[in-house]
Amino acid sequence: MRALRDVERLLDAYLNFEKLPQKNMFWLDTMSFLCERFGNPQGAFRSIHIAGSKGKGSVAAMIQGILAALGFKAGLYTSPHVSDFSERISLGNAPFAESVYRAAFRELAAGLGKITPADLPGGREITWFEGVTLYAFLTFRAARCEWAVLETGLGGRLDATNVASPEAAVITVIEREHTEFLGNTLAEIAGEKAGIIKGDTPVVLAAQEGEALGVFRERAAERRAPLLYAPDLCSWECSEGPLGAEIRLASPLFARPVSARLRMHGAFQGENAALAALAVKTALPQAGEDAIEQGLASAFLPARFQVIERPQGFPHIPALVVDGAHTPRSVSHTINTFRAVFPGKGAALLFACAQDKEAEEIARVFSAQAGLFSPVTLTVPGAVKKADPDRLCAAFSGAGVSFTFDGDYGRAVTGALLRADEARSPLLVTGSFYLAGEVLKALQARGRTLPRPGGCGIVGP
User: What integer pLDDT is reported at residue 151 of this predicted model?
Assistant: First the structure.
């Protein structure tokens, strides 16, 4: 959409943490200042706020789906986008009309143009994510959304989305991630995520490991926020079907058990669905079970174990699986889901991760899957995220995983597709949403000439 391209061009001048991570780049006073300047657009709709390490995008999509099924106009703000910027700011499975994006862009451009560096708190420049978050608020207001589902970008306490005053908050499972920004222990990371807990606002909490759970309980008590611990309030069953996970939820908050076939795969989607359903029931106790089922069944996000059967241009690949998993735990979930969806089958693997990921632990996860993935191709996750190829290759070599490495990600994508096609094997692409986006863009461009695979710079171990 032309308006969104204009937004990207406008904001390209701002510091983009997603492209150039830096420490000490988080604060809320700039975002509060911007919202006030623009008439506090975050207050034009009711909201549900989501933080966590894994599953928050899926939970956000599910909540938006339920709200839409209840008849509300509900916006969805999530990140990162995989192949199109509209994925960040949408009506769930559909973008807003061009006229809505255009109206919000005009307001954004005009307002930012009136702000001088001297106006900004502490003289700090506006960041890219703050600009995008502000644009999301303006879009939801321009569209007259009744609700918005807001996913944090990083952490929670100082995330740009934390200027909102939600009806309910959700915190998904916590892992050790982004340790250079959030802390080295689960307790420190949980403390940052717990920053979205606000006074007297209910928070729905996923199952947590010991020290993280203690942090959340303490923070909720301090702020007199009702804490709904999902394992205590809801039971869930999840089985893997050929088209998606099939879930069944039971809770005292429901008039009857809830059952749905999801468009997303993975046994962990059972907990995600429980969190989403509990959050909506908490914010809207009158929400009916039929709408919850419909909303859960409609939710979809790209690159969350996205299965593309017989991808056009590669007719001998029975299935291409694209997944953004980038932590040891999430990669393990992806592999377990692959085994459940494709029992008895091996696959080719294309993997890349950013330099801040736990490459050594992830390599050991793949090492434990003896014979499941071959051939293995390693690369870098596109042009946005900084990678550490030497560390990645050393990690896989040290774990005893045979691989080829190609630092040209376009060539690596094409090469992995062609090798899987030749081997008549499924292909799993994982490790980064940015790599996932490159693969999906390559498929979209399949009618044009793709980069040809060439020699690989490193072969290991």
Answer: 98
Dihedral angle sign, alpha carbons of residues 394, 396, 399, 401: negative
Query: E strand or H helix at 378, and its extent?
Result: strand 373-378
Residue-wise pLDDT for 306-344, tens only, equals 999 999 889 999 999 999 999 898 899 999 999 999 998
Q: What is the mean pLDDT of residues 425-449?
A: 86
Tokens of 311: 């991808």
Determine if the peptide bond prior to 80 is cis (ω within 30°). Answer: yes
Is the alpha carbon torsion for 362, 364, 367, 372 positive or negative? Answer: negative
Q: If you ran DSSP here, which 8-state letter would residue 350 be given?
A: E
Q: Is the pTM of this model over 0.85?
A: yes
Residue 148, φ and ψ in degrees, nearest 5: -140, 145
Q: How many whole angstroms separate alpha carbon 426 and alpha carbon 173?
A: 30
The matching CATH number, chosen from 2.60.40.1120, 2.30.30.140, 3.90.190.20, 3.30.420.10, for 306-460 is 3.90.190.20
385-435: pLDDT as tens digits: 889 999 999 999 999 999 999 999 999 999 999 999 999 999 999 999 999
Every domain of the chain and the residues it spans: 2-298, 306-460
Chain-centre distance of CA 210, in angstroms? Answer: 25
CATH 3.40.1190.10 fits 2-298, yes or no: yes
- The residues pairing with 377 across neighbouring beta strands, listed in sequence order, are 350, 404
